[in-house]
Automatic annotation (TrEMBL):
<comment type="similarity">
    <text>Belongs to the SUA5 family. TsaC subfamily.</text>
</comment>
<feature type="domain" description="YrdC-like">
    <location>
        <begin position="5"/>
        <end position="188"/>
    </location>
</feature>
<keyword id="KW-0819">tRNA processing</keyword>
<dbReference type="InterPro" id="IPR023535">
    <property type="entry name" value="TC-AMP_synthase"/>
</dbReference>
<dbReference type="InterPro" id="IPR017945">
    <property type="entry name" value="DHBP_synth_RibB-like_a/b_dom"/>
</dbReference>
<dbReference type="InterPro" id="IPR006070">
    <property type="entry name" value="Sua5-like_dom"/>
</dbReference>
<dbReference type="InterPro" id="IPR050156">
    <property type="entry name" value="TC-AMP_synthase_SUA5"/>
</dbReference>
<keyword id="KW-0547">Nucleotide-binding</keyword>
<keyword id="KW-0808">Transferase</keyword>
<keyword id="KW-0067">ATP-binding</keyword>
<protein>
    <recommendedName>
        <fullName>Threonylcarbamoyl-AMP synthase</fullName>
        <ecNumber>2.7.7.87</ecNumber>
    </recommendedName>
</protein>
<dbReference type="Pfam" id="PF01300">
    <property type="entry name" value="Sua5_yciO_yrdC"/>
</dbReference>
<keyword id="KW-0548">Nucleotidyltransferase</keyword>
<comment type="function">
    <text>Required for the formation of a threonylcarbamoyl group on adenosine at position 37 (t(6)A37) in tRNAs that read codons beginning with adenine. Catalyzes the conversion of L-threonine, HCO(3)(-)/CO(2) and ATP to give threonylcarbamoyl-AMP (TC-AMP) as the acyladenylate intermediate, with the release of diphosphate.</text>
</comment>
<keyword id="KW-0963">Cytoplasm</keyword>
Amino acid sequence: MRYSPLAVQKAARALAAGGVIAHPTESVWGLACDPNNLQAVRRLLRLKNRPLEKGLILVSGEEESFSQLLDPLSAEQREKMRETWPGPVTWLVPHRDRIPYWVCGAHPAVALRHTDHSFTAALTRAFGGAIVSTSANPAGCQPARHKYQVLRYFGDALDYVGGGSTGGRNSPSEIRDLLSGEQLRAGG
């Protein structure tokens, strides 16, 4: 997938300034913000009409971004995750109160994905760490698969929209619970 390095820098600057952006992911377009910025997360949740209690996904192009959460895991658990990473599999991992409540919601685990989408991985490197990334759609609507759908859903309410195309997979990322092994959402 081709993308513009200038687009990466614009998107990263918007995130650093507390903005909410739309970017392509492995399968659909995502809305993203700085996970450590409560105001940005609240704005993203308002745009999606999503309750805070549901929690959000953290995405990074570098596994090291999740080290504080992965280090306490057993070698077997880390290996299980690495069998699917980088890629379109999101894992629920115990957060041990190391993640802000506005990211994990009402859950004892946080959703993590080590992305293999070239733009999103470059964006997280330029930003300097993991970002919140959730499907770009209001609650109850189909996830946006194209930039024009993002613009139709959100108009000019976003601080940046861009980054190329999605990875072309058919559905949002698969979600698995690391402790139970249960698949909570099938991937495409």
